[in-house]
Write a structure and sequence with these properties.
The complex is a heterodimer of chains A (about 200) and B (about 140). Chain A has helices at about 5-10, 15-40, 45-60, 70-90, 100-115, 115-130, 135-150, 155-160, 165-195. By secondary structure, chain A is an all-alpha fold. In chain A, α3 (about 45-60) crosses α4, α4 (about 70-90) packs across α8 (about 155-160) and α5 (about 100-115) crosses α6 (about 115-130). The relative contact order of chain A is 0.08. By secondary structure, chain B is mostly helical. Among the domains of chain B are: about 1-45; about 105-140, no CATH class. Helix content of chain B is about 70%, strand content about 5%. In chain B, strands 1-2 form a two-stranded antiparallel ribbon. Classes of the chains: A mainly alpha (about 200), B mainly alpha (about 140). The interface of A and B includes residues 23, 27, 124, 131 and 186 of A.
Chain lengths: ~200, ~140
C-alpha cells in the first residue's frame, strides 16, 4: 500500500489534508491505469477525478486496510466503464462533417504526428484498441488489468468478487478471441504502415 | 521434396499440427509484445496542477446539489405534515360537533363484559320463571 491506513482513517473522519495526501499518493498510478483501460490518455485526468470523487463520498464504508487498494481499483474500473459507455453514445465527428479547412488542418496535424514518437505511440494504442474491440468492454478491461497492468488472479478476485476459476475461463476466452482477431487486423495495418514508409 | 513441417494432401500443402502449434505460439508472443508496447504507449502520467482543485470544486458542487435536493425534500415533507395535521384537526372538530348516541351493544359496559356475562344477561329474561299475572297483564 502506498499510504498508511492511519492516513485513510483520518481522511474518513473528514480531514481534507489527509484526503489530499491519499489522492497525491495514488493519482499517478490511477491515471496510468485509466489511460490504458480507456485507451485515450487525453481523457484520463477527467476520469481519474471522478474516481477520487467517488472515493471521497464512499470512504465512510471502508472498514479494513487490506481492501483499500482493490476497492480503489474497483472504483477505477467502474468509472472507466461508465466513461466508455458514455463515449460510445457520443457521436464522433467524421471527416465528412468537417469543413475543407478543418480537413486540411487535421491532415497536417496527423502528418506531423505520424513522424513523431507520439505518433508511433498513438499507432500502437489504436492497433491494440482495434484488437480488443472484438471482446466486450468488461472483458477488455479484465484482459487489460491482467495482461497490461500485471495484476494477479488473486488481485482480480478481490476487485471483481468473482471466483478465480471463472476469471481464468473468461480471460482465456477473451484472449483467444483477440488472437483470432489479430490475424485479421494486424496484417492490413502492417501493410498500410509499410505503404506509408515507401516514398 | 516436402518440407518436414508440412504435409501434401490432394496436391495442396497443408500445415500439420507442429506448424499450427508454432504459429499459435508466435501469435501468443506477438500479442504479448504488442500489449507490452501498449503499456509503454500509455505510461503513468502526472496530472496537471489543476487536478486537486478541480476535484474539490466538483466535490463541493455535488454536496451543494445534494443539500439543495435534501432542502427541497424537507420543505415538501414539512408541507405534507402541516396539511395532514390541519386535516386531522378539522375532522376532529366536525366529529365533536355531532351528538352521537352510543348503541347498547357498543357501550363500555357491554364491551367490558365477559362472554359468559353477556350471554347470561341476554338469556336472563328467558330463564326467569313465568308469572301468571304477568301473562294476564299481557293479554290485557
Amino acid at each position: 500500500m502506498l499510504v498508511e491506513f492511519e492516513l485513510i482513517q483520518r481522511a474518513q473522519q473528514g480531514d481534507a489534508v489527509a484526503f489530499n495526501q491519499v489522492v497525491t499518493a495514488y493519482r499517478r498510478r490511477i491515471m496510468g491505469t485509466i489511460s490504458r483501460l480507456i485507451g485515450r490518455p487525453e481523457d484520463a485526468e477527467d476520469v481519474a477525478q471522478e474516481v477520487f470523487i467517488r472515493l471521497y463520498f464512499s470512504l465512510q464504508n471502508l472498514r479494513t486496510a487490506e481492501v483499500f487498494e482493490p476497492w480503489l481499483y474497483r472504483l477505477t474500473v467502474n468509472a472507466s466503464y461508465d466513461y466508455l459507455r458514455k463515449s460510445r453514445r457520443r457521436p464522433e465527428s467524421r471527416m465528412s462533417d468537417l469543413s475543407e479547412q478543418q480537413v486540411m488542418m487535421a491532415d497536417a496535424a496527423a502528418g506531423s504526428l505520424r513522424q513523431s514518437e507520439e505518433g508511433e505511440k498513438k499507432r500502437v494504442r489504436d492497433l491494440v484498441q482495434d484488437l480488443l474491440s472484438v471482446v466486450s468492454e468488461e472483458d477488455r478491461m479484465l484482459l487489460t488489468l491482467k495482461e497490461v497492468e500485471g495484476l494477479s488472479l488473486k488481485d482480480l478476485e478481490k476487485i471483481y468478487h468473482v471466483n478465480e476459476n471463472a476469471l481464468k475461463v473468461r480471460l482465456f476466452r477473451a484472449r483467444q478471441r483477440v488472437l483470432k482477431n489479430m490475424k485479421d487486423v494486424t496484417i492490413p495495418l502492417v501493410r498500410s504502415a509499410k505503404s506509408n514508409d515507401t516514398p | 521434396m516436402t518440407r518436414p513441417d508440412a504435409s501434401l494432401k490432394n496436391g495442396i500443402m497443408e500445415p500439420n499440427t507442429a506448424m499450427l502449434q508454432k504459429s499459435a505460439q508466435e501469435n501468443e508472443g506477438r500479442l504479448d509484445d504488442l500489449l507490452a508496447a501498449y503499456r509503454m504507449a500509455c505510461p503513468d502520467t502526472e496530472p496537471g496542477a489543476a487536478f486537486m482543485p478541480a476535484i474539490w470544486a466538483r466535490i463541493e458542487e455535488r454536496e451543494k446539489a445534494e443539500r439543495e435536493s435534501t432542502n427541497w425534500f424537507g420543505r415538501f415533507a414539512k408541507t405534507l405534515v402541516t396539511a395532514a395535521v390541519a386535516a386531522s384537526a378539522i375532522l376532529a372538530m366536525l366529529l365533536s360537533s355531532f351528538s352521537y348516541d352510543v348503541p347498547a351493544h357498543q357501550s363500555v359496559e357491554f364491551l367490558n363484559r365477559t362472554f359468559v356475562e353477556a350471554l347470561r344477561a341476554d338469556q336472563m329474561a328467558a330463564l326467569e320463571p313465568l308469572h301468571v299475572d304477568r301473562i294476564a297483564e299481557m293479554e290485557q
